[in-house]
């Protein structure tokens, strides 16, 4: 990640030099302003699109996972009872029973985020492997 950030920093310097090199001296301030404006708009648009994509994927993953948490399901009831029993050691049983469901919801949210980032980091690793090793030999190695 640090290397990627360093590389992007060098890329923007080179891009600015190439973009502004042919401008006349009186147009240079306008060119710099336009370049910076484009860089800001591009970065903001990319960030907004990425966050929207992450939110949509999280909603999708949450829907799939939450569909398995049905009232009356023995596994869900057992999990809630186990959580309430574990909490009963530090608080009264009524408060422990009330706190069990929010803890299960919090665990669900963590799992949703984990699924999204695990899937995408695995996809990045596979894509990087395909780029560095396009032709696999029978042993499965490059």
Describe this structure in words.
The protein contains 4 helices and no strands. With 142 residues, it is mostly helical. Helix 2 packs across helix 4 and helix 3 crosses helix 4 (93-132). It starts with a helix and ends in a 10-residue tail after the last helix.
What attributes characterize this protein structure?
142 residues; 0% strand; disordered C terminus; mainly alpha; 4 helices
What is the strand and helix layout of this fold?
Layout: H1 2-20, H2 28-66, H3 74-87, H4 93-132
Helix pairs in contact: 2-4, 3-4
Strand content: under 5%
Spell the H/E element sequence: HHHH
Q: What is the C-alpha radius of gyration, as a whole number of Å?
A: 25 Å
Principal-axes geometry comes out as: rod-shaped
Count of DSSP H/I helices: 4
- Given as residue ranges, the uncertain stretches (5+ residues, pLDDT < 50) are 131-142
**Structure summary, number of beta strands:** 0
* Major sheet: none
Name the helicity range: over 70%
What is the distance, rounded to the nearest whole angstrom, between the alpha carbons of the first and last residues? 24 Å
Overall average residue pLDDT? 82
Structural class: mainly alpha
Put the structure in a nutshell.
By secondary structure, the protein is an all-alpha fold. The protein is built from four helices and no strands.
């Amino acid at each position: 990640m640090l290397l990627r950030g360093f590389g992007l920093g060098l890329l923007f310097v080179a891009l600015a030099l190439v973009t502004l090199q042919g401008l006349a001296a009186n147009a240079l301030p306008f060119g710099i302003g336009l370049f910076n404006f484009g860089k800001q708009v591009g970065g903001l648009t990319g960030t907004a699109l990425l966050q929207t994509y992450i939110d949509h994927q999280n909603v999708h993953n949450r829907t799939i996972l939450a569909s398995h948490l049905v009232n009356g399901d023995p596994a869900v009831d057992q999990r809630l009872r186990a959580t309430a029993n574990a909490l009963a050691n530090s608080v009264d049983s009524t408060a422990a029973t009330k706190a069990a469901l929010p803890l299960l919801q919090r665990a669900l949210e963590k799992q949703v985020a984990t699924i999204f980032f695990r899937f995408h980091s695995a996809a990045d690793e596979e894509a990087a492997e395909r780029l560095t090793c396009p032709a696999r030999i029978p042993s499965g190695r490059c």
